[in-house]
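sorry to bug you again but im stuck and you know this stuff better than me. theres a chain ive been looking at and ive put its sequence and its fold in token form underneath. id like you to explain what the token line says about the fold, in plain words if possible. anything you notice is useful, everything is just below.
___
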Amino acid sequence: MKENFRFFTEVGVVSWTGFIADSLYSLLKGLQYIPGSSIFYHLHHALFHRQRINLHYTMNDFARWTNNTLGEKPLAEKLASVDPLQFNSIRDGREKLIRYIENYIGEIQVFPRVPKVREFYFMELRSFVIPANIEAENLNDFINGLQKLGRGTMLHHFIEARFRQNGKYHNDFSKWFEKYGEKEIAQKLDKLNPYLYDLDTLRKMIIDILKEHREKN
């Protein structure tokens, strides 16, 4: 029997971890000790809550602060190159960031501090996942569900799912379509890079892919 797709959404509370960076050295120490939820927030989640209107729109928060506040552009470019899609665990992303900073620091002994108003506050997100009370039995239902739901649904099923999936696909949508024989849809959705678009644009792109497939079939 075919199992319906159950849409979920999430709401999040952002809080301070207690860690602050006021220099390159304290940024490194923070990355070594902050909880994984803070790495996830600054490397992944925060990207989807910013307006993408400048050349640094793809920078994670660590790269952005290193560039804009510390003025360490070469290092910022390295940190910005940490592609969230390369990692299936928060630990891997953390280690990559730490390694770039350690290599950049080298033999530096003095680390200038920034004023208090420009310090980096390590934040974390505590998410609460709740049923959206919408299910999809077929393609039309799925399209209708996506049209009704918002960013919280996209975050849960298309972004955070990557860290829950151990199989072939990296999002819940592709996994469901593959399971019920819609391999073409599954592959198209899985090829979308969520870090290149805001969530509303990403949702529209997914709906367009589904509508195009419906029209062809």
